[in-house]
Amino acid sequence: MQWLAEVCIRRPVFTTMLIVAIAVFGLVGYGALGVDRFPNVDFPVVTVVVTNPGASAVEIEGDITEKVESAVNAISGVKEIRSTSVEGISQVNIQFSLNKDFDVAAQEVRDKVNLVIPELPKNIEPPTVRKFETNASLVIWLAAFTPHPLVGTTHLARRQVKDNWKPSMASCGCHCLVWQNPKCASHLTRCACAPTT
């Protein structure tokens, strides 16, 4: 390093040109640096969804959500568990530490959920375990609002919308919301679809 200092002191023009060349190469390299606005990043989050049609939010919380949480809580590398219990649906999101292998984490969650299935209500639909993927975010939300009976609205949304789009989507689902006021009974059916990855 001492020889470089001596050369720079004896040859100031060489030193200046060397600094300018390094700066130029840096600017050219910075301009050619590739930037991906939507990088393919896998967040270590696994979601467990269990559906029990007709069950209230309180029943979902006590009979399904708490049992699933207790089962997956024993997995190593769990950083955070968040759950949502609404009428007929339990959703548990498990976030793992970044050094946890994503595929191994998803498989461990599947194993734990399969072990707890005998403790869940008998009339539940098969639980779904999915890895969180940025490319599989919901891209379409549709809402059908009508004063007609709920059965007709749900049939229309599921048969005419969901079933037609499902072959080209990674997942498609419908949720029915019902409310009433003194003047009319209204029903809202929402459909959400995610693209294939």
Topology:
Layout: H1 2-10, H2 12-31, E1 45-51, H3 57-72, E2 78-86, E3 89-96, H4 102-116, E4 128-131, E5 140-146, H5 150-165, E6 169-180, E7 185-195
Antiparallel strand pairs: 1-3, 1-4, 2-3, 5-7, 6-7
Molecular structure report:
The structure is a single chain. By secondary structure, the protein is α+β, with helices and mostly antiparallel strands. It folds into three domains: 2-31, no CATH class; 45-132, Alpha-Beta Plaits (2-Layer Sandwich); 140-195. It is built from five helices and seven strands, in the order H-H-E-H-E-E-H-E-E-H-E-E. It has helices spanning 2-10, 12-31, 57-72, 102-116, 150-165, and strands at residues 45-51, 78-86, 89-96, 128-131, 140-146, 169-180, 185-195. A hairpin with a 4-residue loop joins strand 6 and strand 7. Helix 1 (2-10) crosses helix 2 (12-31) and helix 3 packs across helix 4 (102-116). The longest helix is centred in the N-terminal third of the chain and has 20 residues, at 12-31. Residues 175-193 have low confidence and may be disordered.
**Coarse shape:** elongated
**SSE arrangement, N to C:** HHEHEEHEEHEE
CATH hierarchy class name of the largest domain: Alpha Beta
Report the strand count.
7
Distance between the termini: 53 Å
- Percent range for β-strand residues: 25-35%
By secondary-structure content and strand pairing, the structural class works out as alpha+beta
Sheet having the most strands: 4 strands, antiparallel
Radius of gyration: 28 Å
What is the number of domains? 3
Kindly state the percentage of residues in helix.
25-40%
Please identify which CATH superfamily of the largest domain we are dealing with.
Multidrug efflux transporter AcrB pore domain
Count of DSSP helices? 5
